[in-house]
Design brief:
single chain; 383 residues; mainly alpha; three-stranded antiparallel beta sheet; 16 helices; 70% helix; globular
């Protein structure tokens, strides 16, 4: 075939892959980022600076990443899965050595391109690595103890390193995503029941080894009045703001709790509270419906993939979005302890937004290549 013919064939292939993109999923993603930009505009008192404009720029860069990641061959991500995991793990180790310390914790790293949080990228890496591993394991051996030990170690190692930073929220979310994906890969119920029993039995030991501020957060979660002007302040103000929103809200830039600065972290972890105060129950239910649709579409995409690797990539993205949304909303409504989890695509934050977009790009790649088959249990898939 001539060079011109090859170019035309490549162009036709790109057009076909572009047409196969999950456009409805991408429309919901764009809608959620637009809601985030609107709330960040309100946070700043009706100004696009400093948060809304940065959020829009980051969201556009993230969407560009989604398209690039989605349109490259699926097997490229299969080949890069383990190297990406190793690099992400090395960055977390590097945080302990030269990380930026803020508030008594080392969670950030600056390698000359600006500070970022390696633990967020570890969530991407764990999905890739587990998806590749279970692509390799023959179906009949998925629940064999020897083969289960490897993915468990893949999850536990970064979890321990993140907990040492310390970062309880990110560590628990990483573990939940990892073990959730192991379950979806087909590992038997018995392992999870045994792990749950062991965790319950070991709670006194875990309690003793938590940092003092982490134990205090749990105690305040059980009784917010224990420290109303300290650890309990966030959740009490959050509940007041949500209650003040009523059905239709107080309107953009008119929320009393948020605009008078009673509500802390309103551009990051507590942005859902601000949304509830200014847009009311109508606004919060709309956002919840958008997240529900996004998660459902990701799981539906996973079920349509023929390759197990692609199936687990889409399922991992769905788990990531659902768990972060569930923990954030549970946290700001007082149903869960405050652990510092952003609301995906809506909260202000560079690293977390990019990590979410990368996972959505991997899910979109699986959707584009949903008819592609990759044989399970082959040595080539592992190495």
């Amino acid at each position: 075939m001539s060079a011109y013919g090859k170019a035309m064939e490549s162009e036709r292939g790109l057009v076909q892959r572009s047409a196969a993109l999950p456009w409805l999923t991408l429309a919901i993603v764009i809608g959620l980022t637009a809601i985030g930009a609107t709330m960040l505009y309100s946070v700043a008192g009706g100004q696009v600076s400093p948060w809304a404009e940065r959020h829009v720029v980051r969201a556009l860069a993230g969407l560009a990443c989604v398209l690039v990641i989605a349109l490259v061959p699926l097997r490229l991500w299969l080949a890069l899965a383990y190297p990406i995991y190793v690099v992400a793990l090395a960055l977390i180790v590097l945080v302990a050595q030269i990380g930026i310390e803020m508030g008594g914790a080392k969670r950030w790293l600056d390698l000359g391109l600006g500070p970022f949080q390696p633990s967020e990228f570890m969530k991407v890496a764990i999905v890739l690595a587990l998806a590749r591993y279970f692509q390799w394991v023959p179906l009949g051996r998925v629940s064999h103890p020897l083969w289960v030990a490897v993915p468990v170690a893949m999850v536990v190692l970064p979890f321990v390193l993140i907990m040492k930073q310390p970062d309880l929220g990110t560590g628990l979310l990483l573990a939940a995503i990892g073990f959730g994906l192991i379950f979806l890969a087909g590992v038997g119920w018995g392992y999870f029941l045994a792990a749950g029993g062991a965790l319950l039995a070991g709670l006194p030991f875990v309690w003793q080894h938590l940092h003092a501020y982490q134990r205090e957060r749990l105690l305040v979660f059980l009784d917010p009045d224990r420290d109303p002007l300290g650890k309990g302040y966030h959740i009490m103000q959050s509940k007041i703001a949500l209650g003040a929103g009523g059905v239709s809200g107080q309107g953009l830039v008119n929320g009393t709790q948020s605009q008078l600065d009673f509500l802390p972290e309103k551009h990051t972890d507590f942005i859902f509270t601000m949304l509830g105060e200014e847009l009311g129950i109508v606004g919060t239910l709309g956002v919840l419906a958008a997240f529900a649709a996004l998660v459902a579409l990701l799981f539906l995409s996973a079920m349509r993939c023929r390759a197990h690797f692609a199936r687990l990539l889409a399922a991992g993205a769905a788990l990531h979005v659902f768990l972060h949304m569930f923990v954030n909303i549970g946290m700001v409504t007082g149903l869960l302890p405050v652990v510092g989890a952003p609301l995906p695509l809506v909260s202000y934050g560079g690293t977390s937004l990019l990590a979410t977009m990368v996972l959505l790009g991997l899910a979109a790649n699986g959707h584009v290549n949903r008819r592609e088959r990759i044989d399970r249990g082959t040595l080539g898939a592992l190495w």
